Amino acid sequence: MGSHAKAWLVEDESAREMLDRVLTERPFLLLPPLHRVPLRVGNVVELVGPSSSSKTHILIQAAITCILPKLWKGVSYGGLGHSAMFIDLDCRFDVLRFSELLNHRIMEAANGSSSKVGCHQKDSEAQFERMKPYHEELFALCMKRFLYIRCYDSSEFLRLSRTLHYRLQKEREVHGVNVHLLLIDSIGAFHWVDRGSSSFPLECDNRKSWHLQNVSEAVVQEIRRLLLVHPMLVMATKAVVLGNKYSTNELTWNYRKCSAVDNPYSRNITSSDQQLPYREYMPAAWQSFVTHRILVRATDDDLVNGEHQNNSIYLLKWLLPPLNSLDKFTVRDTGVFILS
Amino acid sequence: MARLANLETEYPVLDSTVRNFCASHGIFSAAFAEQNNSSERLKEGIAQVLSVIDDMHQPWLNGMELLEDAKRNKHVFPTGIQGIDLLLGGGIRVGQLTELVGPSSSGKTQVCLRTASNVARNHMVLYLDTGNSFSPQRIAYFLGKTINPSSAQAKNQFLQKVMSNISCHSVFDIFAMFDVLHQLESYLRCQDGRGGCQMRLLIVDSISSLISPVLGSSSTQGRALMTSAGYLLKKLAHQHNLAVLIINHTVGGEGGYSKPALGDSWKCIPHSRLFLSCDRGSNNYNVSILRHPSMASGKAARFVI
User: Fold this and answer.
1) Any stretches that span the bilayer, and where are they (chain A) (predicted)?
2) I need a labelling partner for A65 at 20 to 30 A (CA). Which of A31, A57, A187, B52 fits?
3) How many domains does chain A have?
4) Distance between CA A152 and CA A221 in Å, rounded?
């Protein structure tokens, strides 16, 4: 008995060793444009914005970063090499566009490494042809790590959330892949339908009647349970309508003011921005589940690229944890690029 | 959700022991199975129940399978109008909802009729007409422009064949549209997999006249109906490989410019949105992209019909 108690008291590892282990197994993710706050598994990130503000694009770029390997046949791709799961509640995912973006990222990483060696134009073209089968193999490998499912109403989503654990288990046993990223496109997609169809009593009496609050609570509970067993980073988008008073002019005014008054006494100016510029419609169960929140919106400015391409500029603001900065970024085929 | 007793015939492991265990935990149907470690037989039973639920809804697809399905089934149909086809990189895509927005007389119905006449050569088309704007004469005119001059009889036969591929239904309220779409869903479920002429295009002219009457600002029912209609169309488009073309009107917005009707909740439903307008007094039309999965918004083109 005494030896058991003593064995219990012996340390397993020092704090430094634990930190090393955790940082390798669960690294921080710094995905542009969300680079200001490092994200880890277990975080639930919500991307909020009006329609057409590149929210889905950010999710897709995060998925591509997740499925690309870190290092493959001598070329560094800078990815995580894990699987990503995409739950499409918006049902607007375009796989052809996704494969285009993946190809662009693969080419860019491959070109980046070859340009370091310093080949000439002809050499690089020949090398491109040589590398094609490798690229196709890598492309197939990455695409197989991307898991996709779509739901057409909230009862399907609820059923899905209940069987996620079982499916992930099966996936791990059969294919040996670990899902690191859970992406939900448009968590508020069924909001109006759920609000409209309040409590339809179904056949059995012991069946709870499902309406907005219940569905949300049930889904959040299932995902929480899932995160205990399969630690993942959850990213969800949410479409909102920005209020009229927070038009583009107002936001750029705040931005200019923030950058101009760059002193420690600017706290009282920014405290008035803490009210949300949009109406929150998700139930409290989901709101309290979210650990990080970001607001994105499109501006009317365009970035003239020099070629005939005009890329729109988007603004990003961290709402949770609240940061004072406004980031500008633009979206291109090879990824998301921060402008300032 | 199936009752466990009914599933016993298919899955003999779900015998009375398992059912009693489940009943003691308040589990009466397949939806409420939970993990538990008590016995091997129970574990098997639970695993079986979970796999039954799993099979009941759509399977996971990985990226390669999605891509294969897109390449095999989700083709692009040219509208027959050069300007639009060039702008969209081929035409409208199967599996996606394309919305045409524009003020009155901006050519929306004409574009739909032209697309219908083009697609009907080889596939079936369903035209849901809300304002009696379907015109068989116009379709015949479009077809007549493109076929080679041959004998009048051959021309007639060709016209007959193509026209019989287009079915036109008049719907005057949103519930009638739901009716038609549900009938279409059951019809397509039987048709899929069989060879022959398949339905590939669904046109709703115009969805705003169906939804605007139910969409009041205070009630939630209107928006719920609108969202359900949108999801039903998306489901039909994806699962049965249809291209869906929807017409929407414009309303006045801030600053005097016109914006698409049906509000912000509708913005998230169509895959692509095109804004059409007409130069006054001529046959020249302008089209610009409001939203597209792979192209920047703002790209514009001109076309003539």
Assistant:
1) none
2) A187
3) 1
4) 21
**CB neighbours (10 Å) of residue A108?**
14
Residue of B66, B72, B93 to mutate when probing chain A, most A C-beta within 10 A: B66
Q: Measure the CA–CA gap between A272 and B104, rounded to whole angstroms.
A: 44
**Is B4 a domain residue?**
no
Q: Residue A310 corresponds to which tokens in the numbers above?
A: 């005009």
Q: Which residues of B touch A189 (CB under 8 A)?
A: 227, 268
Q: Is a pLDDT exceeding 90 seen at residue B216?
A: no
Residue B11 covered by a domain: no
The range of the structural domain enclosing residue A46 comes to 34-112+121-197+210-241+277-339
pLDDT in tens, B152-193: 888 888 889 999 999 999 999 999 999 999 999 999 988 877
Hey, are the CB atoms on B63 and A143 less than 8 Å from each other?
yes
Claim to verify: residue B50 and residue B122 sit in the same structural domain: no
What mean pLDDT is predicted for residues B286-298? 86
Report whether B237 contacts B94 (CB < 8 A): yes
Cβ of B225 and A92 within 8 Å? no
* The predicted structure's pLDDT at residue B228: 92
Domain range for B20:
16-56
Write out the E strands in chain B: 61-62, 76-77, 92-93, 97-101, 124-129, 166-170, 199-205, 243-248, 250-252, 258-260, 272-278, 284-291, 300-304
Asked if residue B278 and residue B143 are part of one domain, the reply reads yes
Of B96, B235, B268, the CB nearest to A152: B235
Quick: pLDDT tens for B132-141. Answer: 999 999 999 9
The yes-or-no verdict on residue A159 having pLDDT over 90 is no
pLDDT for position A257:
45
Contact assignment for B298 to A310 by CB distance below 8 Å: yes
A103 and chain B in contact, CB less than 8 A: no
Same domain for B246 and B288? yes
Question: For residue A322, what is the domain's CATH number?
Answer: 3.40.50.300
Per-chain mean pLDDT for chain B: 83
Nearest by Cα to A238 from A190, A299, A275: A190
Using alpha carbons only, what angle is made at residue B280 by residues B276 and B282, rounded to the nearest 5 degrees? Answer: 95
pTM over 0.90: no
Is A159 in Cβ contact with B53 (below 8 Å)? yes
ipTM (interface pTM): 0.82
Which residues of chain A lie closer than 8 angstroms to B69, CB-CB? 95
Give the total number of structural domains in chain B: 2
> Where do runs of H (alpha helix) occur along A145-190?
154-175
Closest residue by Cα to residue A286 from A228, A220, A221, A236 = A220
User: Is the pLDDT confidence value at A194 over 70?
Assistant: yes
Q: What is the DSSP string of B70-104?
A: HHHH--EE--S-HHHHHHHTSSEETTSEEEEE-ST
pLDDT of amino acid B279: 86
- In this prediction, residue B164 carries a pLDDT of 92
Pairs of residues, one from chain A and one from chain B, whose beta carbons lie less than 8 Å apart: 121
